[in-house]
Amino acid sequence: MEKVVIVGGGLGGLLLALLLERASLDYVVLERSDVAKMPLEGGGVISITSQIQPLLQQLGLLDALQRAAKPLSRITVLEVEQQPGQQPMIVGSIDSAFSFARYGYHTLAISRPELYNQLVDQIPPEKLLLGKQVQDVMQDDSVATCICTDGSSYQGIIIGADGAYSSVRLSLYRQLKDKGLLAAQDHRPLQYQYRALVGMTKPLDPNRFALIKSEHSDTRFWYVPMTGNRLCWMLDELLMEPMVCPEVEDWSMMPQAVLDMCINYRAMQSPLEGTLLGELFDLTPAGTIAALSREEGFFSTWIHGKVALMGD
Fold it and tell me: How many CA atoms lie within 13 A of 15 on its CB side?
């Protein structure tokens, strides 16, 4: 079998790499970042559902992930008005206990950096190539090639696991468009109308924030008690109109977006009694809050020749 060239060392790319590693198949991961591990301060939360945990158990990861995570007990959906003193209103509640009763596994809440670092530890360093920014992807009837900005190139089955702003997808779509083979739907750019402010607090005082004391994570959408007495939080902001995403991911405006959103929502009541959002902002390590566009788009082309895309 040909070498599998995975473009993007995020969660999806690393999990695919681990599956190939366990199956003794030849692969390499091209990651544009220069560092393999993520800092544990900051970052968002990800839920590991009961359906995927049998796979993680077969891969030998589940025990370590369970130690780093909190099992979800309940998800409460809240509606919050942007008015000082306005208490959040409960819209609905989902008891997560059914997950264990049905599947034998609790849904787990874990920080993205901790999950990422656990996966990185499973990949041999010589197969995770850092500082590899893919510039173009070329293919003919017999071979597909990734070309990086440093002049290096890699041939094999190309998997675009590089997120919403995928260099692999853009290269593939341009070539298909030139040949008249790209579906009309795939000509449309990604858009976003929601922007999310995301952070994770430093360890909190459990005597004041009773929500973090429990062995289980009682989630108040989107305020998730985590291990280590931390709280992951997220705030969605609806923009006035849909915005068109640039072709290349641009982080230059994020510091200003973080500042603007933190100012605009400081006085909003959080789901924690007696706590405004501004205090949660202040309890989050400096420089770790992120303002992320929630890109939306539907593509019909996911594979062509020896190039395939992974969804983001």
Answer: 14
Cis peptide before 222 (omega within 30 of 0): yes
The CA R_g of the chain, rounded to the nearest whole Å, is 21
Contacts of 68 (CB under 8 A, 6+ apart): 110, 111, 114, 115, 118, 227
Q: CA 78, 88, 72 angle in degrees (round to 5)?
A: 40
Give the span between the Cα atoms of 237 and 216, in whole angstroms. Answer: 28
pTM: 0.90
Sorted by sequence, the CB contacts under 8 Å of residue 28 that are 6+ apart come out as 3, 4, 5, 6, 127, 129, 154
Among 140, 130, 206, which residue's Cα sits nearest to residue 175? Answer: 140
Q: How many CA atoms lie within 13 A of 51 on its CB side?
A: 0
Distance CA 183, CA 17 (A): 30
Q: Which residues, 6+ apart, have CB-to-CB distance to 207 below 8 Å?
A: none
Q: Which residues pair with 110 in a beta bridge?
A: 46
pLDDT, tens only, 21-55: 999 999 999 999 999 888 888 888 998 988 899 99
- In sign, the C-alpha dihedral spanning 212, 48, 290, 276 is negative
Rounded to whole angstroms, the Cα distance separating 91 from 79 reads 6
Residues facing 243 on adjacent strands: 192
CA distance 222 to 271: 9
pLDDT digits 0-9 by tens, 47-62: 898 889 999 999 999 9
Give the torsion sign (CA, 9, 11, 16, 17).
Answer: positive
